[in-house]
Design brief:
By secondary structure, this protein is mainly alpha-helical. It is 59% helix and 6% strand.
Length: 417
């Protein structure tokens, strides 16, 4: 909103300083500050409102340290996160940008699904919340929308690198000499593509269409048969991973903030021709605007962490956890860095796998021996460490440290290839 306002003011009135809103870095800084202020000041009022409405968490006694004390803590705090993301983005981002539109749709979509789940749990007194199949259908629906827009929209393009011979002028002659060295440049033409960045491999980008090259000669036009299901899988897996991680005070919020900062770096270099060329990565026109969105995302996470650190004054509920995971997934896909998710979102991945392993092993042993056995004392894995005697705040802090290490590894993949 402010981008268009100050652009018009600069054009018609030539107001000094109005042009600063043209810079992504400035608008990103304003977005993160605004997001922090919203989450800190409006958050306090939302918490009081939730307490007044007795929107408290119902906690089952599973023998976990400090669990009973969490009984009655306000939930649905994800509303704070949603407001802290949406308002700054609407104020400072280019709202006509296809990537911003996509992220807004993803945020609202998963926010609504999470809100319905929390509403049923709190107001309808149904501990199961929204039925699992409806959650999955909602995630699949979002994946279908995201995949279709990224594949079919004419605004979602990349610029391919081309190699041109570098001409060197010989000493004492005006005649240029052809050199065998080549300077990589980006083509002027913008092209549709299903290519994505492949970590650890230099000058190598993976094209989803290759997976169906055996179908026919013009297999590339059928690439959506692979691309869209893959997008659906990523959105579903990462959003559920964030949901699984949301079990300790500040765990999901802190790790999401770390991932957000990393994605912001990746979005900035991918949307800037100078950095993209220097790092020898794919250049994605107009994707730099996503830095404004992810700045608001990080600000919202950090601001919410003010109230969510141990002992938490509010829980985000599914309203927040599903939204955080979905945003991270869609964002990574939009900047074509989804193959880095197993590294960047390693904590979400481990939390997901721990649950799958626990359930699978329990069912297997029960079928074989008649008595179900467990790999972990409790899943997700952060509860396993609780039962081993580790304090909640220590587990969370160590998971944050692991998240920072994974974030650094993700960024380092830009050079280690």
């Amino acid at each position: 909103m402010f981008y268009y306002l100050f652009k018009s003011l600069q054009k018609c009135c030539d107001i000094p300083g109005a042009g600063v809103f043209q810079y992504i870095s400035f608008r990103a800084a304003m977005a993160v500050i605004t997001s922090l202020l919203i989450s800190l000041f409006i958050g306090k009022r939302i918490i009081k409102f939730l307490q007044k409405k007795q929107v408290g968490e119902t906690v089952r006694d599973l023998g976990l340290d400090g669990q009973v004390q969490k009984q009655g803590t306000p939930t649905m705090g994800g509303l704070i996160i949603l407001a802290s993301i949406l308002i700054p983005v609407i104020l400072f981002a280019k709202l006509q940008n296809i990537y911003i539109i996509l992220m807004l749709v993803a945020t609202v979509w998963l926010g609504v699904i999470g809100f319905l789940d929390d509403y049923i749990k709190v107001f309808k007194k149904d501990k199961k919340g929204l039925h699992g199949k409806f959650k999955i259908l909602g995630q699949i629906g979002l994946g279908l929308i995201v995949g279709s827009i990224l594949y079919f929209s004419s605004d979602v393009v990349i610029k391919e690198k081309v190699k041109t011979p570098k001409k060197i002028v010989a000493v004492n002659t005006a005649k240029p000499l052809e050199n065998t060295n080549f300077t990589p440049l980006y083509s002027k033409a913008e092209t549709k593509s299903t290519k994505t960045t492949t970590p650890f491999f230099k000058n190598n980008e993976f094209d989803y269409s290759i997976l169906i090259s055996w179908l026919c000669e013009d297999y590339k036009k059928w690439a959506f048969l692979i691309f869209i299901p893959f997008v659906i899988f990523i959105v579903t897996a990462v959003s559920n991973g964030a949901n699984m991680t949301d079990g300790l005070d500040g765990l999901a919020t802190g790790t999401s903030a770390i991932m957000g900062v990393t994605l912001g770096v990746l979005a900035y270099v991918s949307g800037n021709t100078v950095f993209a060329n220097y790092l020898n990565i794919m250049y994605i026109p107009n994707s730099g605007e996503l830095v404004v969105f992810i700045a608001a995302f990080v600000g919202a996470c950090v601001g919410f962490l003010w109230y969510n650190t141990y002992p938490a004054q509010v829980f985000m509920g599914d309203t927040g956890s599903l939204t955080l995971g979905g945003i991270i997934a869609v964002f990574a896909i939009a900047i074509r860095k989804e193959l880095l998710i197993p590294i960047l979102c390693g904590i979400f991945l481990v939390e997901n796998i721990s649950v799958l392993m626990q359930v699978a092993y329990f069912k297997y042993t029960k079928r074989k021996t008649g008595e179900g056995r467990r790999i972990f004392r409790m899943a997700p894995v952060h509860h396993h460490y609780q039962l081993k005697g580790y304090h909640e705040s220590k587990i969370v802090t160590r998971f944050w440290i692991i998240g920072i290490v994974l974030a650094i590894m993700t960024i380092v993949t830009l050079k280690i290839r």
